Amino acid sequence: xxxxxxxxxxxxxxxxxxxxxxxxxxxxxxxxxxxxxxxxxxxxxxxxxxxxxxxxxxxxxxxxxxxxxxxxxxxxxxxxxxxxxxxxxxxxxxxxxxxxxxxxxxxxxxxxxxxxxxxxxxxxxxxxxxxxxxxxxxxxxxxxxxxxxxxxxxxxxxxxxxxxxxxxxxxxxxxxxxxxxxxxxxxxxxxxxxxxxxxxxxxxxxxxxxxxxxxxxxxxxxxxxxxxxxxxxxxxxxxxxxxxxxxxxxxxxxxxxxxxxxxxxxxxxxxxxxxxxxxxxxxxx
Length: 285
Description:
Distance between the termini: 51 Å
Number of helices: 10
Order of helices and strands: HHHEEEEHEHHEHEHHHEE
Structural class: alpha/beta
Number of strands: 9
Low-confidence stretches: 272-285
CATH class of the largest domain: Alpha Beta
Largest sheet: 7 strands, mixed
Strand content: 15-25%
Number of domains: 2
CATH topology of the largest domain: Nucleotidyltransferase, domain 5
Radius of gyration: 22 Å
Strand order of the largest sheet: 6-5-2-3-4-8-9
Mean pLDDT: 88
């Protein structure tokens, strides 16, 4: 800690105005009392070891039926996986993998078609305002489909923004993976991070093999995105309960899916690489 505060306990019981004065005296920075209040709510969460709903927390922004969305992408270059899960009376999941801007445009058009068939359902992301939606806008511009992005943004709910403003958790970061871990939501994929996933994607693109090694890479990347989408839904339902004052009940809570569809929009290999190549859509329960 800085400014003479040795730990969360010291900060928790300090007068906010005194904290502001000490910070200004030791760092030259001016902070608002409201910022100190946020720090103290976080300190209370750490001390008690439980989530704390912040003073003035807004209403939970996600209704009982919604669509969860997560993307994997190379910044400003290509959105190579789009994954979504429909939460409602007919739950299902859909994933698109696209390996070129042309295939990306095809995937974006299909994503828009699916969402148009679900009018009124909000599109939920985790930090999508800063991450997913800028990449969607770039993808739409590359494809000449700018109107699509406008319609998606109208439905967008960035749950990260609500969590940051309305909830204090006893963890140092509220990234999706960190929050999932705190809530007891286990992940199944063996890919550890977005950086690792991007490295694997580049390896996938470089690979001239069309046999099992390349297929295994692709499946691991799809599993990684599936974990992100499922984690987003799990976190949404946990935060819904916390916002209503219910105690934390760690663990997975997702029910069964009606189906999962994966669209593999891959560019056909050269003639001498065709053996073992396939491009298809498939569905499984």
